[in-house]
């Protein structure tokens, strides 16, 4: 397998980059896959953790960092992109920005009670099917529904 390389943003600002990296946080217990969903800070919609690229960091590691900041997840990311979904991000000063989010699986090893955005979001374990019904983005719903780490021969 090809090793993922870090991204270098040299001169690019958050407002210039419209690609984000998202974490599909999961665990397998008694052969059942559960995904960890969080609420957005503004509208309280169910989403997956996601954020902007970080200079010198791989996309998968960026997704894992967002999982930590937004959901208190300590886990191992998989370098393989599960898929891409599109959405509009509300940027106060710029209006709605069209964004593409690349999704990476993060196997959850521990959940912290104290993390950067604790108290700003809810988090909840749920089935892939339920999570797929609760998200607004059709492509993300498909990624959630189709995800099965047991069948991917990777980080299960």
From TrEMBL:
Residues 18-148 form the Nudix hydrolase domain. Signal peptide: none annotated. Keywords: Hydrolase, Magnesium, Metal-binding. InterPro entries: DDP-like_NUDIX, NUDIX_hydrolase-like_dom_sf, NUDIX_hydrolase_dom. One of its GO terms (cellular component) is cytoplasm. One of its GO terms (biological process) is diadenosine pentaphosphate catabolic process. SUPFAM superfamilies: Nudix. One of its GO terms (molecular function) is bis(5'-adenosyl)-pentaphosphatase activity. Pfam families: NUDIX (PF00293). CDD domains: NUDIX_DIPP2_like_Nudt4. It comes from the Bacteria. Its cofactor is Mg(2+). This is NUDIX hydrolase. It comes from Roseobacter cerasinus.
């Amino acid at each position: 397998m090809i090793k993922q390389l870090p991204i270098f943003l040299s001169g690019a600002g958050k407002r210039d980059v419209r690609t984000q990296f998202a974490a599909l946080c999961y665990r397998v217990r008694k052969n059942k896959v559960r995904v960890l969903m969080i609420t957005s800070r503004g509208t309280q919609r169910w989403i997956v953790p996601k954020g902007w690229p970080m200079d010198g960091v791989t996309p998968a590691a960026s997704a894992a960092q967002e999982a930590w900041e937004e959901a208190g997840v300590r886990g191992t990311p998989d370098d393989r992109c599960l898929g891409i979904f599109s959405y509009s991000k509300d940027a106060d000063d710029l209006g709605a920005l069209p964004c593409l989010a690349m999704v990476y699986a993060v196997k959850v090893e521990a959940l912290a009670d104290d993390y950067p955005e604790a108290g700003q979001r809810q988090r909840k374990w749920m089935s892939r099917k339920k999570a797929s019904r609760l998200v607004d983005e059709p492509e993300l719903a498909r990624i959630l529904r189709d995800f099965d780490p047991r069948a991917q021969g990777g980080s299960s």
